Amino acid sequence: MKPVKTYILYGCIATALLGLFSCDKNLDNEVKTSFDDKTQWQSESYADIFLNDVYDQLPDMYSQPENLDNFTDDNDAGFYYNSWKFKDGNLDPASANYALFGGGATGVQTISRYNWPALYTSIRKCNTFIQQVTAHKSNYSADWFNKRIDEARFNRAFHYSILFLHWGGVPLILDPQVRTDTASLFVKRSTYAETLDFIVKTVDTILANKYLAVKYNKGNPNAGRATLGAALMLKAYLQLVAASPTFNSATYPGGTDPNRIAGFGNVDPARWATAAASFKKFMDDWGGAGKQYNLFPEDSTLWYEDNEYNAEVIWDRQYVSNAKGSNYEQYGGPVYILGSYYTWGNYNPTQELVDQFFMANGKPITDPASGYDPQKPYVNRESRFYKWIVYDGAPYKLDWMPAQDTIYTRIDKVRPSLNQIDFASTDVSNTAYYFRKKLNPKNRPSTGVSGANYIYFRYAEVLLGYAEAQNEAVGPDASVYTAMNAIRARVNLPALPPSLTQSQMRDAIRQERRVELCFENKRFQDIIRWKIADQVLTVDLHGMKIENTVPGNNSGVWTYTPVGLNHPHAFKMKQYLHPIPQSALAQNYKLVQTPGY
Known about the structure:
Blueprint lengths: L3 H13 L20 H4 L3 H13 L25 H6 L28 H20 L6 H26 L14 H4 L6 H18 L18 H16 L26 H17 L26 E5 L10 H4 L4 E2 L2 E2 L9 H4 L28 H6 E2 L3 E3 L8 E3 L26 E2 L18 E5 H16 L3 H13 L11 H15 L6 H7 L3 H4 L5 E7 L9 E7 L17 H6 L10
Antiparallel strand pairs: 1-8, 2-3, 4-7, 5-6, 9-10
Protein name: Glycan metabolism protein RagB
GO cellular component, one term: cell outer membrane
Main location: membrane
């Protein structure tokens, strides 16, 4: 069997042309990029092409510059992205233009396949596959049928999870709809609790069936398909979100919610224990030394193509270099490398994020005992800082580069740098920082060249999720310390100090999560679920202005001054969830709008 990574190249073409081409009677001469309904479901290999297109509908997070981090306080994105409008408090339900550039103020809907109609299109494909494969069950082996049905169920649950995270309660559609069937065509929004329950029950069915593998390793022909590990992680993560303050609340911050679509409408501390139990089951059954999942020894290389499906990877999206490759390297990293323009410079860490990185002694820079010197801010920081942040004076060398470069972002009137901090509208960073985490070192920045997969979930998140949920449920017991210290030990940070209070541990967990998962599209949901978006997105963010006290000849000292970016920061309470597009409301009279819009 060919791996999904090969099939994904043409699966989308096959289903796009479905029904438009009649098959030749001689099956050996069929054009396998186009099928009618009869041919599509007559064999496992043909049905697989349809399902591989379902996998191809997974959000393409590496192939466009707008991402969830753009909507947070961690990244300074360009003014031409819709995240700029979002940070200015603008979300327009009337817009149906989800284009990246020049689109309406639609928030995360400008991200690839994060918009309402695209997600339901993907869900319809999952429903169609389940319906048709079930109707033609006699054409398949029992093993193939059982596995593929659960794979389709997982893909449907994953797409519903995106809707759940950004819209709350949504219409649950489990069969391909027919326009003439008006009795079932119009579906109301399920409650927040009902939507979560549907996804959890779907995952529980998959876990109970045990048809899928726990994990696929690199080289396995099924690598890239859904697994039991991915299913349990999805369940635990959604339970973590649901247990968090924004949604585990009697009131929704965005407005009155009589239909209970934006949260539970009550507070139940047991929801934390439920999430903790799911993470613990993952760790007990499949995590740690000698088991399927564990922390990868080197935190900076676990994303590389050579290390695909390592022990830390739980769920990812496939890319194939120079065929269906990603654009990640084109969009981020220093703009100018060895004097030449290479990238769009989209990943620009804010000073707020940079300040979260610990000192080498494990203490935050705010601790008087940390040794932090604000006029030597890049000295004696922890290892992740040097691996992931490109700062002023940082050495920069990737495998494709013929020589090492040094990236300067300071304002230097004697030897000006092309990467000098830019408060204007070019691609050069406005914060004086660039990012290098996840960049494929073998690929020179260009469109579609990288075959490194995008990781949705990894084992570090299991440990962090468990620590957070367990701390909220019972306090900082020994198991919370064990999970947290495992993350810290990998990067040579000392263990957390003993006897932390629950509040102190909460702060430690949130800081560790922000650093460890930075620029992995996790921060957005964290500031939403922790109900702090209206705090962190309503104040100006900062960069670092570096100047010499004698700028004429640089004979003075270099000074470091945090400087405001003067960018939009007007987040509104209703933005804790997104509005349903007005066009969808017009098509379905049973839909109600998200509170506040």
